[in-house]
Amino acid sequence: MKSENVIQQEPLRYERKFLITDYSYKDVEQMIKFHPACFSEIYHERIVNNIYFDSPGLMHYFDNVEGSLERLKVRIRWYGDIFGKINKPVLEFKIKKGLLGRKESYVLGAFTLNVEFNMQEIENALNFEGVPTHIKNEVLSLKPTLLNSYTRRYYLSADKNYRITVDHHLTYYGISLHGNNFTNKSLDLNSTVMELKYNSNLEDEAKFVANQFSFPLTKSSKYLQGLERVFI
User: pTM of the prediction?
Assistant: First the structure.
């Protein structure tokens, strides 16, 4: 994938996930607070929203289910209210190679998400200055498959080598190119998704950080969970 006009291109890093159902969200917060790596909160809590896109045959979904070494997720992300006029959306290509991942991000134009949502809204957003033509074409070859929303908190270790995000109040909606009333909804109040992120050269030390938690690393994808909840 070309990188011209990309607003963010991260290096490959580890992104290790924990899908937590045996402990409450408050329990998870306490474990982070008392972790020997001395994590502290680095950003205010906020609501994260995403529209995911996939091929007509759900190629991205099945690549994840089958554990393909190279995987891709395409989504539009924004913060705050999930419905209404979306003023600062960002297109993200989340690229995974085994356990390593990175993102490429592009600023989009505003669009509106309501019952009249259709692909024209996305096409107008993609016409924002600076979005490369090949990126527009790739997104327009896909279809919206899932809308999700969750509340996220952010933490950083004292040595600044490890980031943690904690997501809860997970909400999933079916979404398509037409006829959206957003009543096909699934709310998950029993799960917390924690992600530990660190550079690829820190894998050995990261095992100690991960092992201090009382829950195991898991294979977890909010896209897969959401799609299976509302459609499959």
Answer: 0.92
pLDDT digits (tens, 9 = 90+) for 9-38: 667 899 999 999 999 999 999 999 999 999
Cβ neighbours for 54, distance < 8 A, ≥ 6 positions apart = 60, 61, 74, 142, 143, 145
Judge contact between 148 and 171, C-beta under 8 A: yes
Distances (CA, A) of 107 to 77, 80, 142: 10, 16, 18
pLDDT in tens, 189-228: 999 999 999 998 998 899 999 999 998 888 778 999 999 9
**Strands 192-199 vs 84-86: parallel, antiparallel or unpaired:** unpaired
DSSP string, 130-193: T--HHHHHHHHTSEEEEEEEEEEEEEE-TTS--EEEEEEEEEEEE--SS---S--EEEE-S-EE
3-state secondary structure of 57: coil
Contacts of 191 (CB under 8 A, 6+ apart): 19, 20, 21, 168, 170
Of the candidates 227, 129, 126, the residue with the CA atom closest to the CA atom of residue 170:
227
76 with 106: CB under 8 angstroms? no
Amino acid letter, residue 3: S
The helix/strand/coil state of 104 is strand
CATH topology of domain 8-230: mRNA Triphosphatase Cet1; Chain A (3.20.100)
What span, in angstroms and rounded, lies between the C-alpha atoms of 198 and 164?
9
Question: Largest alpha-carbon pair distance within the chain?
Answer: 50
What are the boundaries of each domain within the chain? 8-230
